[in-house]
Amino acid sequence: MKRPARSLLADVRPLRESPAFRRYWIGSAVSSIGGTMTGFAVMLQVFNLTHSSAAVGAIGLAEFIPVLLLGLFGGSFADAVDRRRLVLVTTSSMTVVSALFAVQAFLGLRQLWLLYALAAVQAMLLAIDAPARRTFLPRLVPPDRIPGGVALTQLSGYLSFLIGPVLAGGITAAAGLRVCYLIDALSFGASLYSVARLPAMPPQGSIARAGLRATLDGLRYIRSQRVVLAVLLADLDATVLGMPVALFPAINAARFGGSPQTLGLLSGGLAAGGLAGSVLSGPAGRVSRKARAMLFTVVVWGGALAVFGLAHTLWLALLMLALASAADTTSVIFRGSIVQLATPDRFRGRVTAVDYVVGAGGPALGNVRAGAVAELTSPGVSAVTGGLACIAGAVVIRLVFPALTRYDATAEPAAPRPGQASLASAEAAD
Fold this sequence. Notes:
It is a single chain. By secondary structure, the chain is an all-alpha fold. Helix content is 80%, strand content 0%. It is globular and about 55 Å long. 60% of the residues are buried. The N terminus and C terminus are likely disordered.
C-alpha cells in the first residue's frame, strides 16, 4: 500500500548518492531564503515610496535589461573557464550588493533610483552566475538522476519562496525592511561554502572562446533543436503574459487589508504551490511526453491566474496562486529535463544561459506588463487578461510546433553531439 505513495514523491536519490550535490543543494537553499527576503523587501520598499504597481513592475525592467545583455554572454564564459571558480567570484560580488541594500536601508536613504540600480547590478551578476551553476548538475549526478536533480532544485527554490516572504513579512512588521537585507547578506556564506567544496569544473571537450561568436554558436544550436526552442517559448508565454507578482501590493491593499503579513502570504501562496509540485514531482520524472505535458501545465497556470484576478476572498486567492505555482513547477521540471538531456557539455553553458534568460527575463518582463496593464485598467483586470493570454499562447505554440506532441524523452541521449540526430524522432516530421 505504501508503494503508490512513494511513487508520488520527488526522487531524492541525488541527495543520498552524491555528497557534493547534497552540500551544494543545502547551501543554495539557505542562500535562496535570504535572496527571496531581499526580493520581498525591494518590492515593498518601492511600493511604499511610490504606491504604484507600475513602479513595482519597473523593478523587473531594471533586472531584465542586464539579464538580456549579459545572460547570453554569461553562458559563453561558463563554457570557457572553470565554472566553479566563476561562481565563487560572482557569488562573492553578489554578497557585496546585498550588503549595499542593507546599508541604504539602515541609512534611510529612500532613493528609488538607488533601489533600481542595485537591483540591476545584482541581476547583472546573476546573469553570469546562474548559467554556470546550471552546468553543475550533470557533473554531480548520473544522467538518469537529472530529472530528480532538477525537481530537487525546484524544491529548494520553492522552499525559499515559501519561507522567505512569510519570514520577511513578519520581520518587516517587527523590525523593518533593513533586517531582511542584512539576513540576505549573511546567508551568502552558506552558498560560498558549498561551492568552495565542489571539485573543479572545467568545460569538457573543445573549449569555446568566450564572446559573440561562441554565443551565436549556442543560439544556432538551439534553433536547430525545435523542441528545445518550443519549450523555451512556452515558458516565455507563461511568464511574460501571466506573471502576477507586481500586482500583489496593490491587490493586497485593495482587497485584503494591506498589511505586510498578508502581502507575505500572497507570495507564500505561490511558494506553497511550487513546494507541493516539487515534493509530488515523482510522476513528472516518469512522463515520457514531457514537451506535450509542459503545454498542459501552462494552460493550468493561466487558468488559475485568471481566477486569482477575480478572487475577493483571501483563501480563494491563495488557493489559485498555489495551483498556478504547482503547475509552473511541473512545467519547469519538464523544460529543465529536456534542456539538460538534449545538450552536450561543450554547449551546456550557452544553452543553459538562454534557459536562464528565459527563466529570469520572462518573469521580469511579465511584471512590467502586469504593472502597466494595472495602471491602465486595474490589478484584477491585469491578472485575468494575462491568464487568458497564456492559454491562447499555449494553443498557438502547439499549432506552430507539432513536434512537441511527438517528442519522447525516453529516446533522448544524455549528451548528443551537435551533428547527431538529437530529438530526431520528433524533429524529422516538423
